[in-house]
Amino acid sequence: MGIEFKELVSFDQFEEISNLQFKIWNLSDRDIISTITLKALTLNYPIMGLVIGAYDENKMVGFVICMPTREPNTLYGLIMGVLPEYQNSDIGNKLGIKVLELCLKQNVSKIFWTFEPLESQLGHLYLNKWGAVVSRYAQNYYQLKDELNNKFPLDRFIVDCTLQSNRVIERINKRIKARSVKEALNEYPVANEFHFPDEKSVLVQIPSNISKLKIEEPDKISEYRNSTRLIFEEYINNRSYFIAEMFSEVMGGERQNYYLMEKRSYI
Predict the structure, then answer these.
(1) Helix and strand numbers, DSSP H then E, in the chain
(2) C-alpha pair distances (Å), 256 with each of 90, 135, 185, 251, 253
(3) In this structure, are strands 242-251 and 254-262 parallel, antiparallel, or unpaired?
(4) 131-150 pLDDT tens trace
């Protein structure tokens, strides 16, 4: 039997989400989303947000929570998580696709998400698989007290997923062929903290594996954060560039990851 996806409505299910937040991120009681909040987000009158669980038989192994916003027909994807032992099973992708399908049925036209800019797997998921576009860079977006995340600033990309756009439809239906890192490096200049090319399309490199760095070399994450923060702030927030594509490939025995920043509008 495969993974089953359900809209969640009961307090027992909300308790399972609380447990998963601790198991996935080791969040403190202060930072865990409460069952009272989850209940409010699942109201049908008035219609609120979406709370969806992924189940392996009777075991919840992942979830996603979306909140309503003050913008018409728009949701905000607050949080999505999958148990570590299931994280290479495409469950996160399928949770997101389930959200997009439900939103289309419920007349939701746009979803905003946030994710860690240095996490290449999330960049690939949101940009290459779902067709979202990075439209803003936010410094110090979260403040978490757990040991793993309190050693460096928790900046975030804010991404826009316009559900009826061609890029979202094409990527959900897997109609876009990924380009290689080698092709990208041959075509576009690369920005760094000392060099900001004045071109319509510019690459920026991020770490090969941020999860590994968090455990083994946390100081390096701060270095990456500080250098890429300068680049993202300048291009995205000051020059109004967007990011809509990520390149990722193993080269020379190590994975290379690059975002493509472009001076054009996708929104």
Answers:
(1) 8, 10
(2) 21, 23, 11, 7, 9
(3) antiparallel
(4) 999 999 999 998 766 555 56
